[in-house]
Amino acid sequence: MIPGANAAPPGQPQPKIQIIDPLYNFGTALSGQMVRHTFEFKNVGKGRLVIRGVRTSCGCTAATPTKTNLAPGEVGKVTVGFDTRFQKGHQVRTITLYTNDPANPQAAMTLQGDIKQQVAAAPSQLDFGKVKRGTEITKEVVISDLTGRKGFKVGPVSNSSPAIKVVQEPGKDHKPGDKLKVTLLNTMPVGPFDDTIKVVTNRVPLQIDVFGTVEGDLSVSPAQVSFGIVQPGQGAIRIVRLTNSSSRPVKVLGISSSSASVTASAEPVKPGREFRITVQLNRSAPDGQVHGALTIKTDDSTQKTLSLPFYGIVGQFKT
User: Fold this and answer.
1) Domains of the chain, first to last
2) Closest among 139, 120, 128 to 180, alpha carbons compared
3) Cα separation, 256 vs 296, whole angstroms
4) b/e per residue, 239-258, with b = 16+ CB within 10 A?
5) Is the peptide bond before 309 cis (omega within 30 degrees of 0)?
6) What is the pTM of this model?
7) Which of 67, 101, 313, 317 is most buried, most CB within 10 Å of its CB?
8) Contacts of 302 (CB under 8 A, 6+ apart)
């Protein structure tokens, strides 16, 4: 966090910052372009104005002001750049100067305008949802040129996860653009997954987020434990069900907790098929937040452990 500059002592001449044209509307820009603008500020007070820092909102950068110590009447400048890659629609960015002006210690400037996409992906992200372990699913993404100019080219295309395969195919009917076939392979391990497909084009780059959850034969319900707000010394108990949908029976070998305040035990309801997990927040839990996870160990060859997050608050609350 950038601290504001100390104001001049009372009784001495005070500085006063004035932002000349604090709002800059750049109109419409194509995504991928760098929008630049130089803001001017002036010391209209009677004391020396000190600029101690500059902060910008996401996607913006600011150069060091041309002057950081201004006598009365002096003018300084700060140049701002806005990277419009992966942006679309109306955008607003704020640039803040931290000063020793007692009346305006944080002087704000605003950069705004509309970003027009050059290239689009439909859909812009791929949600595979919940997928059974060992299942293979393919989804398609169409990459389109929105500029109307000739010579649009797509590629190369890359991603990180070896369990997600991306194949590039040419667009249909001689239309500019390509189709991506994205396959979630059956080698994806159990649990949540996410990946990013990076698409290079001769216009601007694209990113397509891919995510979902692979579910195994063993599952817990609910997927996390909430103790809520618990009074000190009261403790709490929650019940979770572990079920096995495979044809093989399983055993729960043990349960460990990342917090000394939470313990758990397993009891067979249907041996090898269903278990009752009793999760207990101990009465001796100290005041404050309780969060962590239980690790359930099993003899299943593909799901040797299951993670069960828990959270809660221990404290005395008065209204």
Assistant:
1) 17-116 (2.60.40.10), 119-215 (2.60.40.10), 218-314 (2.60.40.10)
2) 139
3) 7
4) ebebebeeeeebebeebebe
5) no
6) 0.64
7) 101
8) 133, 190, 216, 217
